[in-house]
Write a structure and sequence with these properties.
This protein is of the alpha+beta class and 156 residues long. The protein is built from six helices and five strands. β1 and β2 form a beta hairpin.
């Protein structure tokens, strides 16, 4: 038998953590149903105590049990794999939001709807840290637009 330590992989579809030995033999470790439930419940609010209760552990010892479960390597691997999968699935950046708003603005312009186009433009400005205030005077009908960075302080 090889003296090298086994390597750990995780399969998030089945909730199984697998140890692959260097010699080619594979040993599978499974999570208990409560551990699997905890991993799923922890994803909801990242509160180990509440997740433990929802997973079926006693309410009295839930905070301690939740902490223990987070320290368990098998449970931790499943949680980390699920979090990585979720982050990849929900990859939203300022740039991706700005692209969507820009497409919406273009559509509003093609449909000759200025109000949604202006709203999209203002939303893009807010994404990039600009505060846009518009004031319309009653008498002349002119519109005054003040644009400043959020860090510049309050508008007058």
């Amino acid at each position: 038998m090889s003296s090298q330590p086994p390597t750990r992989t995780s399969n998030t579809k089945t909730g199984l953590a697998t140890l692959k030995k260097i010699s080619g033999k594979t040993m599978t470790e499974t999570l208990s149903p409560k551990q699997e439930a905890f991993a799923k419940e922890y994803a909801i609010d990242k509160n180990a105590g509440k997740a433990a209760v929802r997973a079926g552990y006693s309410e009295k010892g839930a905070p301690v049990q939740g902490h223990r479960l987070l320290m368990n390597a098998k449970v931790k691997n499943v949680i980390e794999a699920d979090q990585a999968k979720h982050a990849e699935r929900c990859a939203v950046t300022i740039e991706s939001l700005a692209e969507e708003l820009s497409a919406d603005r273009d559509m509003a312009r093609r449909l000759e709807q200025p109000s949604p186009a202006i709203t999209a433009t203002m939303s893009i400005a807010k994404l990039y840290g600009l505060e846009v205030n518009k004031n319309q005077t009653e008498t002349s009908g002119e519109m005054v637009v003040n644009i400043k960075r959020f860090t510049d302080g309050p508008t007058e």
